[in-house]
Amino acid sequence: MSSSTVYLNGRFLPQEQAFVSVLDRGFVFGDGVYEVIPVYGGRLFRFDEHMQRLNNSLAAIRLDNPLEKTAWQTLLNTLVSKNGGGEQSLYLQLTRGVAPRDHPFPANTAPTLFASSNPLVPVDPALLARGASAITLEDTRWKHCNIKTISLLPNILLRQQALDANAQEAILIHDGLVTEGSASNLFIVSHGLIKTPPNGPFLLPGITRDLLLELAAANHIACQECNIDRHELLHADEVWIASSTRELLPITHIDGQPIGSGHAGPIWQTMNQLYQSYKQALIAGEVEQP
Ligand SMILES: Cc1ncc(COP(=O)(O)O)c(C=O)c1O
C-alpha cells in the first residue's frame, strides 16, 4: 500500500519520511494544539469554524498562528488532493517548536506545523443500529477544556476506563454536572426537549455540536443549552454523543442501565437525518464554501 502524504514545516512528503526532533515541545511537554477536520467529497467540513476554534486555542496558549486563513486553505486542500480526495479525516497540529527542555516559552522559536490526511473510517453500522454504551466518570481534566490541546492524557485514561468496562465512551461529570464525553459532546432529550451543556471552560466547543444547534434552530426544533446532572442524564428519553469522527451516535445504555426505550430515539433520527443531509449538500457543492 502506498504511504500517505503529510505536511511538515513547509514540505509535503511521504509519512515515513516525516520526522520531528525529540526536543519538540509537543513531544516533551504536550505544548501544542490540534484540529480534526472531516472531508466529504473532497471538501473541508466547516472550515471557517475549525479555523476560528484553532485561533481560539492558539490565543489561549499564546502561540501565534504562522499562517493566514487562505494559506491554511491552500495547504489543507493540497494535502487532501495529494491523498486522493473523497472522504478523509484531516489532522493538523501546531506545537511551540524545538528548543532546549525548559518550561518557559522559548524566544524566537518557529512553531512545528504538521498535517496529515487519512481515509475517513465510518462508524460501524452495527454499533449505530444498536446504539453505544457509556459509563459516567468523574471529570478529572483541567479548567481549560475549551482549548483543543494535544495534551490528551486525561481524556485517554478516561476513554480507556470506559473501554475496559465494555463501554464505548466515558461521560464526564464535573461538580455534579455533565460536561461532555472523553472525545465528544453530549446531547440529551428530556421531556421532548433537546438539551446540551453550555460552552465554557469545562468542555470543548465542538464543531458538530454547534452545527446541530444551528440545524435545530433552522428547523424550529427546540434545543436548550443548560446544565444537566447525572440524574437527568440517566432518566433522559434519549442520549447521543456528537463529534467529527463519530457524528451523532446514540447512547442507549449508561452505567449498565437502558436509556429510554434502550434504542436510538426518534429525535436522534431526525437530527441525524438533518446532519446527513447537510453532509450531502456539502458534497453536492450546495454549502457555501469560504
Ligand atoms: C473532548 C472533546 N469534546 C468534543 C469533541 C467534539 O468536537 P468536534 O465536533 O469538533 O469533533 C471532541 C472531538 O475530538 C473532543 O475531543
What features would you describe in this structure?
The protein contains 8 helices and 15 strands. It has 290 residues and is α+β, with helices and mostly antiparallel strands. It folds into 2 domains: 115 residues, D-amino Acid Aminotransferase, Chain A, domain 1 (2-Layer Sandwich); 157 residues, D-amino Acid Aminotransferase, Chain A, domain 2 (Alpha-Beta Barrel), CATH 3.20.10. Strands 7, 8, 9, 10, 11, 12, 13, 14 and 15 form a 9-stranded mixed sheet that branches. Strands 2-1-6-5-3-4 form a 6-stranded antiparallel sheet. The chain is globular and about 55 Å long. The two termini are 34 Å apart. The model has no long low-confidence stretch (mean pLDDT 97). It binds pyridoxal-5'-phosphate. Pyridoxal-5'-phosphate binds next to helix 6 and strand 13.
